[in-house]
Amino acid sequence: MTHTPSGRRIAAGLRRALLALAGVAMLISAPSAAFADDMRDVIVREFEAFDPKYRERRQHYAERLEALAARISSEQAAGNTLQCSQQMHLEAKWLLGYTARWDALEDKLERIERSLQDKSQDFATEQSPVDGFWGLCYDQWFMRVGESATAAGILASRGETPRYRLRPRLTTGRELINYLQSLLLSDIENTGIDHRAELSSVITSYSTAAYKQYLQQILIDYVALDEDINWEAVREAIWFFIHGSQDIKTGYWGAWYVIDGKILKTTDLSMTFHVVRYSKGEVEYWPQIIRTTLAIKDVPYPFGWRSAGKFNNHNLYDVASIFKFGWPHMSEAERATVRDEIREMLRWSLDNTLNPDGSYRHDPAYADTYADEYYFGVSLLDVLGYWNPAERFWTDDPLEPALAGRANCCLIKQRVNAYGFEGWAGAGALEKLESSCSACPAPGHSTTQN
Questions:
Q1: What pLDDT, in 10s, does the model give residues 57-67?
Q2: Tally of domains in the chain
């Protein structure tokens, strides 16, 4: 997307307006590990101010949810996709991680428990004839929006169209801007809700629609006939919000928090990745984005690369994608640093997540589904050109022997085909594998290393 001088002035004006709407005295943003650790503690203290028993209750529900997640994971590994249970599990994770709504979480866990008795849950992946959205087992509208954006993308990749017309809640650019503004700033002490996850999800969904032409056409052709929707205005609204909410100091996007009458603004790896990816790198402040991405290597998610002190393929894929789009904007010194980081990423991923038989190890504490492990593991190797040297943006040299050939594309593809994953993750992993290793031997034949 072209950034005209007038467009940049409007985006800058929106930044000032967002601050003015908050009525704050100060804005602080920093990508350091110490800041991120402090911010995590601050968020917990804000929840405790809302609910003095927050830590105790959160631990109780975390243990119950972890046990349910293990049961869902075991069923999925056995071939039972449990789509409805999975959707409710994702919503329960959101309730646990971003709210103090204990009654809603209790109800959700009980419903998950009952749902595990039903092994046939294909209905959860169907489009609703009522409003045209997917995600029938979600209660939260933003989760249904995310599910629908993914489903529409899968249909478009197959050359198919939705069965029912969509009836969106937000039909004007003004409604979308107002909604996004309401999510940008969290006041946890007074509401018991951290809007970060909802904001990230909505930005991802609407960025997908705003930047991907084939999804725009689906939205134009398959919305309710009685809705007067100006999609150009909606696209402009998401563009102005995205550019107006970018932090010019760090180059990153992230949630804002009201703490003691001040705004603390965070760096958010996932949010920034989605904006950069779907805009194909057409964003401002690349020098700041590059410096920040390197600086947050040891920072805990969502503010940096690590989760529970460790790397994972999901976060590393986000980082690698940012590096790829940012490569033309890097100095030679930065490129040398990034090359070293990418080699370390590859070593870590191959040593810690991929088995010799082509299967990926599952960490239910982080990955939402077993299929996610394959999608993000494959996506990391794909974006770095592991199997395709022509896509290896970061080096012209062959991979060193310690890395080359360790990930057998055909073996991984056999695993994905054998599991028959439902949903976007399995389909996405298979699509990338088909592109990288289309000429694989038939199942049952030996596979040589690539």
A1: 999 999 999 99
A2: 1
